[in-house]
Amino acid sequence: MRILLVEDNAKLASLVRQGLSEEGFAVDGFETLEAAHEALASFTYDLVLLDLGLPDGEGLDLVREVRRRGASTPVLIITARGGLDDRIIGLDTGADDYLIKPFAIAELAARCRALLRRPGASLGTVLTAANLAVDTAAREVRVGGEHISMPPRELGVLEHLMRHVGKVVPKTTLEETLYAHDCDVTPNALEAAVSRLRRRLAASGVAAAVHTAHGIGYILVPSPERPGARG
Q: Which of 123, 194, 199, 203 has its CA 20 to 30 A from that of 48?
C-alpha cells in the first residue's frame, strides 16, 4: 500500500518512512503543502499522514482540499498539538484519525492498518484464494492453516494479486503500489520479487500460481481441483 507522508521534521520523517517500509508500506515523503498537493495530483495514495504545522501553511488546508474534491482517502494527522480543541477541529475538518507526537512507530503502523481496513478503504481483513490466506492486519500468510514466512515485498505483491484473483494486474500498478516515488528501483526489481514469490508459493504447496501476462502484468490463478481430490 502506498502512503503519502507530509512532515517537515527530517529526522521524524526518516524514522516513519523506515518503520513503515519495514511493515510493507511504500512511503512518499514531502515537507511542504505545495509538494503534497503536487504529489496528490500525480499519484494515487491509499492513506495520507499529515503534520499540521508546515513551512508553507496549515496542514488542515490540505484536508479541506482533499475533502472538497470528494476524495475519500483516509487522513491520519500526526502532530504535537494535543489539546482537545485541536483534536476536535482536526477530526471535524475531515481527518479520520489523530495521533499525538511523540508516538511509537508500532502504534502508527497499527493505526494505518486500522484505517485501511475500514469499509470502502483499500484493505480488507483476510484475503483467501484456494488454500491460501493473507491476514492484512497481522501481515501473516497461511497455507492450509499453516503459517509461512514471507518478506514484506513479496507479501505486498501477493496481497495485491489476491485482491484481483483471476484478473491481470498491470506491472505499472504493482510498481506504483509497492515502491515509493524516489525509491531506487532496478528495472527488474518487480520481476525478481515475483520470481521469489512463485518459488515460495510452490514450495509451500499453494494451490494457486502467479502467471505472467507478457507485456502487461501478472495474474494469480487458483489451480484446478483434481478429480477425486475431495474425500
A: 194
